[in-house]
Amino acid sequence: MYQLLALINGIILSVMISVNGNLSVQYSAFTAAAIIHAVGSLFALLLCASQKNRKPVWTHRPKWIYLGGAIGVFTTVFQNLAFTYISITSVIALGLLGQTVTSLVIDSSGLFGMEKRPLPRYAFIGLGLSVFGIFVMLDTSVTTAALGAAISFASGISMVLSRTANARLAEKTGALQGSLVNHLVGLPITVILAFAVAAASGTSAAASAGGSFRPWIYFGGALGVVVVMLLNITVPKIPGFQLTLLVFVGQVFTGILLDTVAGSYQTGATLWGGMIIAAGIAVNMILERVVAVSKKTPHSS
């Protein structure tokens, strides 16, 4: 069930990225981030208002569990910066590599109070395929832009740290209220960044590209609430490494579908890398099932 939720989260995430991308074209990337957090905060507040038996939100310890929203803003900033140095495909691949490495470290050591889940030996086959799939997605841009590669890798690290902090908070507040806190914490940071960047560039933070009004581009924040809420549910239940790859697979193939519908899809490294990573996940899940069955089967003496 939780594996399916992770895949669904990847699907929603892909749609959200497409919606938010259109908002970023309408405004600047930083103004769009502020709008996304404002819409997400309002949507989560409305959902929480209809929720019965709400738990206390701001009184829990350790206090670092409230930093998920702030760390998430840095993920966006890192990705925006990386796009100026290397290709989008390489940003995605190196971000995924950063997520994979960070997830494995947290899984194996039980950092941040997460359940300790050492990687079993049979999982190294799937891990090898997944890492190979990531490198298939890379192109030559990473060899000439070490800074962009490092920033992309850092975006993957910050993404895992953000979802881990959010999940720890959600254990105390519930998945929905945890998503609300994520957006409320990130909102003032994105607003400050939007005005700071606008002031530095001599433009208005509210400057728009014009054109016809498209109300659907403002709903990315609502989708973000659902994404964070699903992560709050799945992070404590399945290994971070598996979660990272399942979300990625759902995201990649939904992205390919959306591009195909829009008539902008071209077969390339993202497809082949995604297929190899999906194969790695499938191998791991099959081996996991085989091992589980063999443990339940009584051995004759």
TrEMBL record:
GO CC term (a single one): plasma membrane
Pfam families according to UniProt: DMT_YdcZ
Regions that span the bilayer: 5-23, 29-49, 64-82, 88-107, 119-138, 144-162, 183-207, 213-231, 243-263, 269-287
Xref: InterPro entries: YdcZ (IPR006750)
Keywords recorded for this protein, A-Z: Membrane, Transmembrane, Transmembrane helix
Domain of life, source organism: Bacteria
Protein name (database record): DMT family transporter
Native organism: Hungatella hathewayi
